[in-house]
Amino acid sequence: MADERSLCAPAMRLRALSIDRLGSDRAIELVGLAPSLNDALTKLEKIAKYREPVLITGESGAGKEFFAQAVHLFGGARQAPFVPVNCPQYQEGNLTVSELFGHTRGSFTGAVADRKGAFEEADGGVIFLDEIADLHASAQVMLLRALATGEFRPVGATRSRTVDVRVVSATNRPLNQLVMTNQFRYDLLFRLRQFHIAIPPLRERGDDWRLLADYWLARLARQYGVAKRFSSASMRVLEKAPWPGNVRQLIGVVKTAYAMADSSTIEPDDFTFQLQEGEPGAAGTDGPTPYERVVDLGEEFWTTVYEAFMNRDLNRSQVKAVVRSGLAAAGGNYRKVLELFRLPATDYQRFMDFLRHHDLKP
User: Residue 54's domain is classified under what CATH number?
Assistant: First the structure.
């Protein structure tokens, strides 16, 4: 449990509410005292009681899903559902629409039974659309109608259904720019952004990194029964870190440092290797890079890179680095990149769609 001195006032109220609704083992503790964090949470608490859509923006690892849960807790009834959907997981048209709005038996190949979608499951509560920028174009059209009318039609159904759902969406990509390149609908952006919450990056939150490091060391000590602390030298290293992966990165560093330290004092050698190549916890930050694993070690691209990206074990800049290295070795020819990655020529369109849809071209 976080020390109350490390929580701003709205974060304290959120913790108490989450314990009451979810139980102490699922308490939501947004640790930090930075004015920018306090301002964002104060704004969130004010708008949560309204049912209008909320768009949460912030860098990868900043805590967008926790903020979405905060909207739900501050604004929802005790038993109201919270249904998260990871938009990048569903890139085929029917599959995306089916995940959100459901389908009837036989409406497409593989639809062996009627199925409720996330909107129906979230009726009376909140649906959280994470990484909304990656929502398939066909689903964007249906989402716009659902936001405007509260109605939707499952794939293959002959009648529309009505739900009372609050839509909370999140992205780390500039939706305004995607609108200008016709990758995202302007009218949908307007609907989603009735309220907007911007989460500050960790590097702009002053000494919050210290509070977070102490909080996670205390959690690990309770879990494993051994108390450890960072040495003065380690604290100087952490103070200078730019934290491109934000809170998620810091948590990864603390967990690694705790595990690697042979004594109760954590020294820089126990964790600095994770600060050298971007976001800790991402595949390839220790040992061979993702590019080396695919090209030199013969690992499968769709597993090592594609699945890791979809599961957020690789971030966008790391995938771009893989593609950039491949293009450099292949003389700028994408078909030769496929050969380099040992992919069949029939994967060309899938490969290019993956890069284009997720803005992964260098």
Answer: 3.40.50.300
